[in-house]
Task: structure prediction
Amino acid sequence: MAFGDDMIDGYPDGEEPLVFHHKNGEFRNLEVKQYRDLATGKNQPKTGLFRVLVSTKMNRMIFIAMAMCFGLVFVLNLLMNKPNEATVNGVYCNLSAISFNDTLVVTTECRISSKSKAYRRNSKPREVGISAVALNSQNDEFYIGDDKVDVNEPNTAIPSVIEYENPGLEDMEIESIRVTVESAGQSEELTCKIDNKNKVKRIK
Result:
């Protein structure tokens, strides 16, 4: 179609221009439901971490699995706190005891990790005081001895060895050891059973 003097806005003189009408949103009926819901806001993405975690069935299953894993780790950490282990002033302490030939040997190993927050805050040497007592079946206490160790090398176990000699050790019926470790005003108690290397049945 050529444009001439007898045409107005591209239409011949006397002809009405074509006008298109549509109702707002009417074309949405021809769209796929998924896209229509998304465009109208029906399927608008949910905001917030918790809402996202429970927005779908798969997300809810993953969220429940994560919660169970975190709960299991927490419970295991509580159960794995052994009575013969403790940390004082950033120093990890481990207690063990053996008896043989009327001699009781109490060993407390002290170690600090170079990766620990306590060491990064303060890398100075730490003095750890150790006080040990023995307990019999009636929980009567028997003084074993005291000791001090300087923990100055990270990742190196510094042992404290306290020996207690008594010819009547077996008659004392000692069953366990309790040690108090103290450093920089902090203190913790450790306990352990005695490993009897030459246990002999007593003659009554």
Observations:
- The radius of gyration is 39 Å.
- The chain has four helices and eleven strands.
- The longest strand covers residues 126-136.
- The CA atoms of residues 90 and 118 lie 5 Å apart.
